[in-house]
Amino acid sequence: MSQAPVDSGPEAGATAPLSALLRRATRHETRFDNGVVVWHRWGVAGGGPRPLVLLHGGSGSWTHWVRNLNALVAAGRDVWVPDMPGFGDSAAPAVGEDADALPEPIEQGLQQLLGDAACDLVGFSFGGMVAGFLAERWPQRVSRLVLVGAAGLGLDPAEPIVLKPWMLMRNEAGRAQAHRHNLAALMLWRPDSVDDLAVALHAANLLRDRLTRRRISRTDVLRRSLRRLACPVHGIYGAQDVLFRGHHAALAEALADAPDFRGLQLMPDAGHWVQYECAEAFDQALARALGHSGGPGAACETTRG
Fold first, then answer.
1. Which helix (H) or strand (E) holds 121?
2. Of 45, 98, 150, 235, whose CA is between 20 and 30 Å from 256?
3. If we measure between CA atoms, which residue out of 141, 77, 144 comes closest to residue 103?
4. pTM assigned to the model
């Protein structure tokens, strides 16, 4: 494992929020069979009852959590966030192009960084599938699993999702317009949420996505893994998430296949990228799931399994 100052990369200096976060982080690299996984760490060793690991979504990087890291550090947590293999600054896996290829290099990295210590694990979207697979294969690693907008539950969107092919756009303005359209169509519910920061993060992350043939999110592969988990499982989803809107009862039923399902929290005014769009309410919902004091004012709807 190596460590280096966090002062380079596509995100550095791009926006004030990213630059401020990077100045407070340490950068770590762990090795796997095809190269390195790059991790960022915030907080202090021994913060909270156990380390907290956040896994980003597809076509993403650590920046999917840009609006949540400060709250977690303020809560005293020791936070580790990788760019998963095939995304961000990390090498792509030698074999495999989907979520089922990533648990092993992530576990190898956790072994190098944390030894045998158990962690709280939070996975967003595609990262929720990776988190579920990891918890199934290495149950001693995961003390608590929180799924955020995770797919792979065998539920189809109620309406078609039409995305614009941004790579065909010949100029930067055209690409930015396509990114705004696609964020509104898939990731974010409120028009004002599709802001310049969201577009900048999305554009930078797409350029570094090397796992472009992902398919298993359309199956029930995560639901099958949930049935074999030993740890407590929580769900936090945007009520306006286009992948699950109109299917909230079925979503709760699918998550409740986990033997120790603790409940589904729905953020009423947020879409798929719920932790970005509804950051304050999400932070409080996550605090409750992790056993912190969530405090008042986190508007949500809770469904128990």
1. strand 119-124
2. 98
3. 141
4. 0.92
**183 inside domain:** no
Q: What's at 198, amino acid-wise?
A: A
Alpha helices in the chain (DSSP H): 16-24, 69-74, 103-114, 126-137, 172-182, 196-207, 221-226, 248-255, 274-277, 279-290
Tens of pLDDT, residues 206-258: 999 999 888 999 999 999 999 999 999 999 999 999 999 999 999 999 999 99
pLDDT tens for residues 2-41?
444 343 344 444 468 898 999 999 999 999 998 999 999 9
**Rounded distance between C-alpha atoms, residue 266 and residue 231, angstroms:** 21
- Positive or negative, the CA dihedral 222, 220, 281, 259 is negative
CA distances from 87 to 38, 64, 207, 239 (A): 10, 12, 9, 27
Q: What is the CATH number of the domain that holds 103?
A: 3.40.50.1820
Number of structural domains found in the chain: 1
The Cα–Cα gap between 51 and 37 comes to 18
Of 107, 92, 98, the closest CA to residue 137 belongs to 107
Domain-located, residue 53: yes
Domain range for 99 is 2-158+214-303
263: how many CB neighbours lie within 10 A of its CB? 18
Is the separation of the CB atoms in 180 and 267 below 8 Å? Answer: no
198 part of a folded domain: no
User: Would residue 208 count as lying in a domain?
Assistant: no
d(CA 36, CA 185): 33
| Phi, psi dihedral angles at 155 (to 5 degrees) | -115, 130
- Could you write out the three-class secondary structure of 63-114? HHHCCCHHHHHHCCCCEEEEECCCCCCCCCCCCCCCHHHCHHHHHHHHHHHH
